[in-house]
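INTERNAL AUDIT FORM
Audit reference: QA-55
Scope: verify that the stored structure record matches its stored sequence.
Auditor: D.O.
Record contents follow.
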Amino acid sequence: MGKGQRATQVYRSTEFIEQRRDEDGLVLGGDPFKLAPSTSASLLESEANGKAAKASEASTKTIVVAKPTRAAETESGELESVPTFILVTTYLSYLMLIIFAHLRDFFGKLVYPEMYVQLREQNGFAPMVSDFESLWTRRLYGRIRDCFNRPITGVAGGHVNLLERVSFDFNRSFEFTGRVRNVLNLASYNYLGFAQSEGPCADKVEQAIRENGITQASTRAESGCTRLLVETEDMVARFVGSEAALIVSMGYATNALNIPALVSKGCLIISDELNHSSLVSGARLSGATIRVFRHNNMASLEKQLRNSIAQGQPRTHRPWKKILVVVEGLYSMEGEFCKLPEIVELRRKYGFYLFVDEAHSIGALGKRGRGVCDHFNVDPREVDVLMGTFTKSFGAAGGYIAGSRALINHLRLKSHSAVYAEAMSVPVLAQVSSSMRMIMGEDREHALEGQQRLDQLAVNSRYFARKLAEMGFMTMGDPGSPVIPLLLFSPAKIPAFSRECLKRNIAVVVVSYPATPIITGRVRFCISASHTREDLDYALEQISEIGDLLLLKFHKANVDKERIARIDADIDALNITV
């Protein structure tokens, strides 16, 4: 088939089968999946047939259409409401920092050459990094190192104990003072508050250790496959609404080591430009061709799909073996949800495989905590690969891959995470299973506690976001996101905000370039079900004072009523009281 003919065809590799499901998302009778073939090169159907199938499916299933976020509608539009003076001064601030950094390096090499030995050639060996490459780390990041990697002790719950430290050499090194400060924790991904050293989950962990020890000291493929591991995997599959699941002992490796087992050379990965580093690493390790679409922009995604299908593989123009679209359920740096309903519609039209990373959304979104599929009322079977981690909502570690039984069996034999990595330890498995049972309401002694945590998180996140908007701060993200970014812009305000919060016994995470675009430095507030209304009110009061001090209330004269209205509409839809 020629290149021009392929442009008029519809690429299909998967087929959705309608099934009845119970209230827990389990299939009622019959085989819930029709497996997609390993290669989809031969599955090209006419555009007319594709449209007919799409119309037939639309008549049998109703899907909730994602409302575009304000930031997603026009990313530049969000910045248009910022005074030009703020944007200009932000650029000028970075320009001045970089100029002075180069000047300090120039004169430093003349006056203190011994301090730059690692940047010069030594004994015929080239330096590991050049002075220009390390400029950002040495001259910019180094000045604000005290705002990052702060050591803690104890449990990172609603409050956390911070080990106080000081520096006498401009943040090159730190010394502990021996004092411990109890601070309000708005920095941890402890969404449902399961990070606890006591309580029902901790008791189950202790019991599991007494019965099974600590670890099997082996990979799953050898002697690490225990009954507790198999039972937990079955529970994860039931929780997310899939046929089977595979548990991995490390969250980062869940993406980095499993994506190469799904796609290879001759395949195409289309990735959101703001996807997590683990997804990027997995895509690069796979050997597949990688193309990127604009963040949450469905027009950009469809354009990439159409061009990729029409052109085929580079040079040969053969059809792709597989096309895998990779997105995140909740983008933690932006607080935005992926547009899953619209992506599913594109999947029906073009037939690609869909990989959704629910590291931050599983347990935190949806009325039942089932993640982004639950939030948008999308059938989980519409997603070929569901990935998530246990490090956030479940207060544990590791991650999972969920999908069809054939997919999981394939990963158990081919994925390095299953063949070479150690099996998840007993305490972590016990924490995962006990917290998940509580969320699902299967723990008879604490049947209502899981739902109470879900409801509390929903209330807390919307309350906090609404109050920040009322104060005039410029925030990002969708209503209901437990991660609420607040824009700071100026590089001087980024460390200043963090230090002012610490003075008021509040722990926050500030983020700047290169983790974000250079003009959108921000602070991320991570809301938890373990936060009380008094905790949130205290934080809001102190943040308001800091906002006045640092001139951060860009919407003070013109409060963002549209954002407040969206939050209120979301609150009304959930029928909750904030």
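Auditor finding: record pair retrieved intact. Residues 1-77 have pLDDT under 50 and may be disordered.
Action required: none
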